[in-house]
């Protein structure tokens, strides 16, 4: 009996320390948080992402911030902000993007696990001078292997299609590589790196 318990114990310990297994198929519709995969696989992935989020926010991380303003070489509206990179050693694990323009402000967090985007948190407000009806929303997007697997969107704010979330993730990867205020400005205000 003791001989059989030892391999089971080792298997349980090793299983707890590994990343969740990859599901067979991951798909979402455009307006809900429905995922068509085995519920236990998705639940394990989401739980892993929540642990990544919690651990990153508990750690003492090195920060590097860049102030940026709208690039004058394109027809961007007046806007600006700060993009802060958070590092664990040399590994980028989080970016915080805060800024504003004449009709809104944004506070967005982007989380990485093993160099891949796994979570986006948006806490944005639009309204003000251009629109007296202020709209605030908080959206959450979960990714696995660069695929959107779950989204939770506020009812009164921006609800993004799956392709729009994919475009947002591409922008985040471009910001991840930017490394200076001029490049960040071109990406966020002109949607280009050139």
TrEMBL record:
Highest rank taxon of the organism: Bacteria
PROSITE patterns per UniProt: PROKAR_LIPOPROTEIN
Natural source organism: Niabella yanshanensis
Name used for this protein in its record: Lipoprotein
């Amino acid at each position: 009996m003791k001989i059989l318990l030892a391999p089971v114990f080792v298997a349980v310990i090793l299983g707890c320390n590994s990343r969740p297994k990859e599901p067979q198929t991951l798909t979402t519709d455009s307006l809900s948080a429905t995922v068509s995969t085995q519920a236990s696989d998705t639940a394990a992935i989401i739980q892993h992402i929540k642990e990544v989020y919690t651990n990153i926010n508990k750690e003492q991380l090195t920060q590097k911030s860049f102030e940026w303003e709208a690039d004058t070489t394109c027809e961007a509206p007046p806007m600006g902000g700060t993009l802060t990179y958070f590092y664990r050693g040399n590994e980028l694990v989080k970016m915080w993007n805060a800024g504003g323009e004449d009709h809104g402000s944004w506070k967005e967090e982007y989380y990485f696990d093993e160099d891949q985007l796994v979570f986006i948190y948006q806490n944005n407000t639009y309204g003000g001078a251009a629109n007296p009806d202020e709209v605030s929303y908080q959206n959450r997007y979960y990714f696995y292997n660069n695929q959107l697997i779950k989204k939770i969107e506020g009812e009164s704010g921006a609800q993004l299609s799956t392709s729009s979330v994919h475009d947002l993730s591409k922008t985040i990867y471009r910001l991840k590589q930017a490394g200076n205020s001029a490049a960040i400005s071109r990406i966020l205000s002109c949607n280009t790196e050139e």
